[in-house]
Design a protein that fits this description.
This protein has about 130 residues and is α+β, with helices and mostly antiparallel strands. It is built from four helices and three strands. It has a three-stranded antiparallel beta sheet with strand order 1-2-3, covered by helices on one side. A hairpin with a 5-residue loop joins β2 and β3. It holds the Pfam family DUF6276.
């Protein structure tokens, strides 16, 4: 699938049941763009998503799904604070280091994120304290 916003390649994934309210269209499946990091609802997803196609440091499994949902919401931290917090907490409980991964994504030349990663990383660090 191709990203509706930028035309980049996407990675489809199953949305954990506890986070479906934060998924695009509250869908059971979503996709994250490997270029702009936007998320989109999709009708189906593979059993094992290839999150490393986004970046080598991207978490895998449910941690990756939760982190992907958080990235899709980060363009509006003020309006989606609770949703972002829930997604990041879920990702961390599943084994991801959210702030470290954001640091690594900030240095990735292949990304053209829909939000300022470095600025959001700082704001997220303050929020997750």
């Amino acid at each position: 699938m191709v990203c509706e916003a930028c035309g980049g390649d996407t990675v489809a994934f199953a949305v954990p049941a506890d986070l479906r309210e934060y998924a695009p269209e509250s869908s059971a499946h979503a996709a994250i763009c490997s270029t702009c990091l936007r998320t989109h609802a999709v009708s189906d997803a593979p059993a094992e998503p290839t999150f490393e196609a986004v970046h080598e440091s991207f978490p895998s499994g449910e941690a990756g799904a939760a982190f992907a949902l958080a990235l899709g919401l980060l363009d509006s931290l003020a309006l989606r604070r609770d949703a972002i917090d829930d997604c990041c907490s879920y990702a961390e409980r599943a084994g991801a280091d959210v702030l470290l991964t954001l640091d690594r994504l900030a240095g990735a030349d292949s990304l053209d994120s829909h939000f300022d990663i470095e600025r959001r990383r700082h704001q997220l660090a303050e929020m997750l304290r």
